[in-house]
Amino acid sequence: MSFEAYLGCYKDGEQGYFPTSIVEDAFAPFITRREPEFSCWVVTYEVSPTLAQADLYLNLDPDDASRCSGFTVARPPDDPRLCKALWEILRVTNSAVYCAGECPPMVGALKPYPI
Question: Mean pLDDT throughout 96-112?
Fold first, then answer.
């Protein structure tokens, strides 16, 4: 069974952007292929004796590819390195990771929200 996870950036309730380099830095050791025509990066995690792969479909700013508003993770593998990369992005952006179903979102922020 396959599903998608989504990371989206928000600012004041609207779509926000952050540097695409943040995504690249988080996934760099695992990016094995780039498909620019689809704004897709394939990440591969070696899990002996097999490989676990996911496709990252970036939501690039149409006017400036150095910024993105988030991405979709197609077929996310059960690998702690994927979770670590998502956590690194959440720590430095106003973003949330979410997926369909009864799965609570993970929310990150550049500054703490008032309680």
Answer: 81
Q: Which two tokens stand for residue 11?
A: 């600012």
Instruction: List the domains of the chain with CATH numbers.
Output: 4-93 (3.30.310)
Q: How far is CA 21 from CA 12, 47, 113, 114, in A?
A: 23, 26, 25, 29
Model-wide pTM > 0.85: yes
Please give the structure tokens belonging to residue 65: 């590819």
* Phi, psi for residue 18 in degrees, rounded to 5: -145, 165
Residue with tokens 């979709």: 72
pLDDT at 111 over 70: no
